[in-house]
Amino acid sequence: MNVFTPTKRSRVKRLHERGSYDEKSVFEILDAGLIAHMGYVIDGQPYVTPTAFWRRGRTLYWHGSAKSRMLMEQAKGLPVCVTVTHLDGLVLARSGFHHSINYRSVMAFGHTSEITDSAEKIAEMDYFLERVLPKRNPSLRPMTDQELKASKVIAMEIAEASAKIRAKPPVDDEEDYALPIWAGVAPVTQVMGVLEPDPRLLPGVPVPSHLDRLRPGKRLDLLMAEAAKVGA
Ligand SMILES: Cc1cc2nc3c(=O)[nH]c(=O)nc-3n(C[C@H](O)[C@H](O)[C@H](O)COP(=O)(O)OP(=O)(O)OC[C@H]3O[C@@H](n4cnc5c(N)ncnc54)[C@H](O)[C@@H]3O)c2cc1C
Fold this sequence. Notes:
binds flavin-adenine dinucleotide; 9-stranded antiparallel beta sheet; alpha+beta
């Protein structure tokens, strides 16, 4: 099993039994996500920026406007901590103190660089679209040179990563289990809604079959995980 070797910065200390460093645990959490929070420092000021991302092997990628301050600074090379979080449930205990949250999260550390080669940039952005919406890209008009120039793609090889998971009922003080107080888990999931056609959609354009997988009620994290397998 491939494992990220933890150091002082990535070893889970608080509730360390919830932590793991194997690629499988880390990648499963990353691949079930679409949005990460990028933590980085510019001129001594910390910023945490929510950003869509994708993964290939041990490298994370994200992209955006070539004029984005975050991307311009990261293009020069910055240490970054990328976090991905899935909120899975509210944990209701018999005391306020023992209320908790069920979650899956990853913190990944690395150093950024810019993908400057045009072919590689296009390949990565195509991969991203394919990863989120498999089979959609071939039905779209191709990217223009201007759009390519207006986009920056950032890569970060994961140097270290930790996963932390809580997936269990409340843990109360032993004597509190005798109290007649409702306790348990209120599950939380993010699901797809009903497709909303663009008001400017040409009349008679059908919903393409590649969107069948976005059926209402489908869990977003499962959708993302399935698409990651398709793209892998
Ligand atoms: C949805 C959600 C809600 C949370 N709410 C709270 C809260 O209200 N209060 C609270 O104290 N904690 C909360 N946590 C846990 C929190 O993320 C930290 O794990 C905790 O605060 C311990 O922080 P620390 O700096 O002492 O961790 P340490 O164990 O000292 O961190 C050392 C290293 O362990 C790893 N690590 C730590 N936390 C995580 C993590 N969550 N995921 C992946 N790797 C990790 C990192 O590599 C980190 O650098 C929550 C987590 C999630 C995902």
